[in-house]
Amino acid sequence: MNSRTPSFDELDRQIITALMANARTSFAEIGAAIGLSATAVKRRVDRLRETGVITGFTATVKPSALGWRTEAYVEVYCEGAAPPRRLAEVVRNHPEIAAAMTVTGGADALLHVRARDVEHFEEVLERIRAEPFIRKTISVMVLSHLLPESPEAGATHAAPE
């Protein structure tokens, strides 16, 4: 990835918007919508990928179809100052953690957890709590998605066996 800040114009924004709406949209379709040839769209997409603006293309899948039927957000509170690098090592060891970030406020981190069922979620939570530097967790179970088309409503991998 290029270290300089990537620059892009209104046509790039329109291409990105089209790909975010449907990554399978052809370059010809995008070009027709914004007034460029398919070749010009491809060149721009290639440049956007090379500069790290576009980081990949994915399929959004209904989580329950992959076995993820339970979902929660978990606030993590650490003893002392746990460096983000150490938190990242921990969360990588749990395939059920769909997303993790450090946050402001009382908690040190927020985890988005998907599990097969409540029992599986409880087992995941116990594994997280077993880390020696984690003081406490607070969990909030997801009941429904108010924006079902959002990335958070989708899944990127199947539930572990």
From TrEMBL:
<feature type="domain" description="HTH asnC-type">
    <location>
        <begin position="8"/>
        <end position="69"/>
    </location>
</feature>
<dbReference type="InterPro" id="IPR011991">
    <property type="entry name" value="ArsR-like_HTH"/>
</dbReference>
<dbReference type="Pfam" id="PF13404">
    <property type="entry name" value="HTH_AsnC-type"/>
</dbReference>
<dbReference type="InterPro" id="IPR019887">
    <property type="entry name" value="Tscrpt_reg_AsnC/Lrp_C"/>
</dbReference>
<dbReference type="InterPro" id="IPR019885">
    <property type="entry name" value="Tscrpt_reg_HTH_AsnC-type_CS"/>
</dbReference>
<keyword id="KW-0804">Transcription</keyword>
<dbReference type="Pfam" id="PF01037">
    <property type="entry name" value="AsnC_trans_reg"/>
</dbReference>
<dbReference type="InterPro" id="IPR011008">
    <property type="entry name" value="Dimeric_a/b-barrel"/>
</dbReference>
<dbReference type="InterPro" id="IPR000485">
    <property type="entry name" value="AsnC-type_HTH_dom"/>
</dbReference>
<dbReference type="InterPro" id="IPR036390">
    <property type="entry name" value="WH_DNA-bd_sf"/>
</dbReference>
<keyword id="KW-0238">DNA-binding</keyword>
<dbReference type="InterPro" id="IPR036388">
    <property type="entry name" value="WH-like_DNA-bd_sf"/>
</dbReference>
<keyword id="KW-0805">Transcription regulation</keyword>
<dbReference type="InterPro" id="IPR019888">
    <property type="entry name" value="Tscrpt_reg_AsnC-like"/>
</dbReference>
<protein>
    <submittedName>
        <fullName>Regulatory protein AsnC</fullName>
    </submittedName>
</protein>
